[in-house]
């Protein structure tokens, strides 16, 4: 999958408000093991970061395979467990 991810000032503001750095967002987007959910123009991606936090990133598809990061958040413990379970079962 050859996708391009873009950040703008609103992206950085949203990530900052959520306490998720842009580096962590990129780790999630580039993780070899991640859960992706693509619904219409919205892409949601969840994975674990290098420091062990489970994070979900939300993007909007602007053009085919080109996405704008619009928000992110750290997952709650039960959400993280569900994502980890999906990854362990190889369903992602």
Secondary-structure blueprint:
Layout: E1 4-6, H1 9-18, H2 22-30, E2 35-39, E3 42-48, E4 54-63, E5 66-74, H3 77-89
Parallel strand pairs: 1-5
Antiparallel strand pairs: 2-3, 3-4, 4-5
Polypeptide structure, described:
This protein has 92 residues and is an alpha+beta fold. Helix content is 35%, strand content 37%. It contains three helices and five strands; from the N terminus they run βααββββα. It has a five-stranded mixed sheet with strand order 1-5-4-3-2, sandwiched between helices. Strand 4 and strand 5 (66-74) form a beta hairpin. The protein is globular, with a radius of gyration of 12 Å. The model has no long low-confidence stretch (mean pLDDT 95).
Spell out the key features of this protein:
globular, about 35% strand, about 90 residues
Strand content: 35-45%
Shape: globular
Whole-number mean pLDDT: 95
Task: Please list the strands of the largest sheet in the order they lie side by side.
Answer: 1-5-4-3-2
Count of helical stretches: 3
* Element string (H = helix, E = strand): EHHEEEEH
Radius of gyration: 12 Å
Q: How far is the first residue's CA from the last residue's CA? A: 14 Å
Structural class: alpha+beta
Biggest sheet, open or closed, and with what strands and sense? 5 strands, mixed
**Total beta strands:** 5
Indicate the percent of residues in helices: 25-40%
- Contiguous uncertain segments of 5+ residues: none
